[in-house]
Every structure is written in C-alpha cells, then in structure tokens.
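Q: How would the structure tokens look for this protein?
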Amino acid sequence: MNIRVAEAAGLDAEHLRRAVDWTLGSRRSIRAYLPRPVRQHDLTAILDLARFCASGVNTQPWHVHVVTGQAKERLSTAILCAYDDPHTMARLAEPYDYYPAQWFSPYVDRRRAVGWDLYGLLGIEKGDKARMHQQHGRNYRFFDAPVGLLFTIDRRMGRGSLIDYGMFLQNIMLAARARGLDTCAQAAFNAFHEIIARELSIPAEQMLVCGMSLGYADLDSIENTLVTQRVAVGDFTTFHG
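A: Here is the predicted structure in token form.
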C-alpha cells in the first residue's frame, strides 16, 4: 500500500485496505429495491469516479443513458409489452454474443446453480414457466430500483473495448457500494436493444452492452439473501516460477 496515497485519502494504510476489501467483497447482485430516491449528487459522483478505469490507449468507449421517473416507466412498459408477446420475442436478437451458443461444464453448472438457488428462495418450482416468466420480467422494471442505467458502445470498436467496459461497470458498482447503494448488472436487456434505442433516441452506430439497476437494497426481500458460490483461487490460478 502506498502510504502517501493513503494519507491523501485521510486514512491510514490499514483502514484504506479494509475499506477497499469490504467494498469488493460485499458487492452482490441485488434484485429488489426500496422506493427511496438516489440523490443526483451521488449518481454523478459514481459516474465521475467510474471514468478513471483503465482503457486501451485511453479510448474510454463508454456511453451511459440514465433513466429515472417517467422515462424509466415508459421504457419498462415498452420492453415488457414485447417480452409478453411470443411473436415479438421470436424475432428479437441480441446485438452481440454475451453467452456461448452451446453451454458446457463447468459454466452451465454454475448458471443452473444460481438460477435454481434464486427460484428456490422465491418458491418457484421447476416447470412453473408462468412464475419464471414473471420473475425474469422483473429485470425490465429494474427490479423496482429508482435508477436504471443503459450502457452503449460504438459498434466499430473491437472486442477489447468490451474488456475496458467491464472495468467501467465494475467501478460503477463499487463506487455505488461505497455510498450505501447497490446494483445489478443485467445482460437481460440486450435482446431489446432496438426498443431501447427507439425509446431513448440512441444513434444507430451505438450498440447496447447491458443494463444496470441502481438503488437502495430492500433487505427484507428474500431474493436479496442469495449469495452465489465463488470458485477458490487455487481452482482458477496457475502460478509459474
């Protein structure tokens, strides 16, 4: 730990390390929020910090659309109208491949585990397609969070810029956590990029990367007790030398 950096932050090195470790370790995907509004000052501060993430040759490829209030409600209504129509859903396509075309182990196992753990908490039984559809649809209301974020990137950028974008998203989630706010990054919006572009007047050269809910967690909601299992360091690391 750089002592000068810690002193500049008004903290000793140990307190600063603990604060950073807590922020990293306590971030979770929150799927139910309180109606408590988020102050514009906090939202601006979060985005202001997020922009300091690394990006290849300083390209800074991100563009953020913030939706609140009636704008958020209009967007949610438009997406849910499409989501509830099988004919519309059949013709929708995502702007890029977020997930593999064919799932395989161990990734499919982790995917199934988090899905069934969540459904188990909510009392949704296997085969209950109506309740699964309803629960998944909560994505498009941003899980009742007061703030929705939609992230876009110029379509001409390479795949490396999506790595840069991931760091930007992580910075947002951590800066929010440090202010007592929570988030949920959502690839679920990607199939609806045409609807989102129309509703928010997003230029055709911009591609949707993902969405995100942001607000104060409803700690009384059972879905927010979900804690996903993480692979141990020894299982994904090879030390050389």
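The chain has ten helices and four strands.

Residues 66 and 149 are 5 Å apart (CA to CA).

Upvote if useful.
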